[in-house]
Design a protein that fits this description.
The complex is a heterodimer of chains A (112) and B (112).
Chain A (H helix, E strand, L loop, with lengths): L3 E3 L3 E4 L5 E7 L5 E8 L3 E8 L6 E2 L6 E7 L2 E6 L8 E8 L7 E2 L3 E5 L1
Chain B lengths: L1 E4 L3 E5 L4 E9 L4 E7 L6 E6 L3 E5 L2 E6 L4 E6 L8 E11 L2 E6 L3 E6 L1
Parallel strand pairs in B: 2-11
Antiparallel strand pairs in B: 1-3, 3-8, 4-5, 4-9, 6-7, 7-8, 9-10, 9-11
The chains are: A mainly beta (112), B mainly beta (112).
Chain lengths: 112, 112
């Protein structure tokens, strides 16, 4: 069965902390994505990667960075967490030129 | 860039038929997808249209008109479990990958 796993379902961090959100997929997919989901705003793309060590900015990359050292793992980094980064973060993967995105269960991050 | 418009909320009664519309503006288009997300859950893929016309999958159908930049998701024989958020997503090119850009989502509420 296809699986995208995010390391935490819930996280509470303090303002200014460095935060790592981890995502692992077991489907050998080339493409991986980080979205944030906020009420009324839908899913907004933060960063994506189409290959190991490759990364591209999405629509809202400010305040975030990413790392993809291995094909199966895509990490989202909040260099200095702020309260406006409180959100649901969703990781997704897609195989090659495939049409279907597979999502993880999401990480609900609260920055206090 | 890409933008998508869909209604924020739709209500219907059990057993009825409901249509969720999606209009899009995009600089590159490969297809329109639909995803379902229950509260607290991950988005899951429902359907994909690359060509004009209707695609049917059980109780769900999806339609695309590329000339009108318009599509819809049709849900028949509504059930209570269909209460969820529904997102349309445009699949467009970026660099070496195909990036799904999501609409803001439509909350479907099914009443008994």
């Amino acid at each position: 069965d296809v699986k995208v796993t995010q390391s935490s379902r819930y996280l509470v961090k303090r303002t200014g902390e460095k935060v790592f959100l981890e995502c692992v997929q077991d489907m050998d997919h080339e493409n991986m994505f980080w979205y944030r989901q906020d009420p009324g705003l839908g899913l907004r793309l933060i960063y994506f990667s189409y290959d190991v060590k490759m990364k591209e900015k999405g629509d809202i990359p400010e305040g975030y960075s990413v790392s993809r050292e291995k094909k199966e793992r895509f990490s989202l980094i909040l260099e200095s967490a702020s309260t406006n980064q409180t959100s649901m973060y969703l990781c997704a993967s897609i195989k090659g030129s495939g049409r279907e995105a597979f999502f993880g269960q999401g990480t609900r991050l609260t920055v206090v | 860039g890409q933008s998508l418009e869909q209604p924020s909320e739709v209500t219907a009664v059990e057993g009825a038929i409901v249509q969720i519309n999606c209009t899009y503006q995009t600089s590159g288009f490969y297809g329109l997808s639909w995803y379902q997300q229950h509260d607290g859950g991950a988005p899951t893929f429902l359907s994909y249209n690359a060509l004009d016309g209707l695609e049917e999958t059980g109780r769900f159908s999806s339609f695309l008109s590329r000339s009108d930049s318009y599509g819809y998701l049709l849900l028949q024989e509504l059930q209570m479990k269909d209460s969820a958020s529904y997102f349309c997503a445009v699949r467009g090119p970026s660099g070496g990958s195909y990036i799904p850009t999501f609409g803001r989502g439509t909350s479907l509420i099914v009443h008994p």
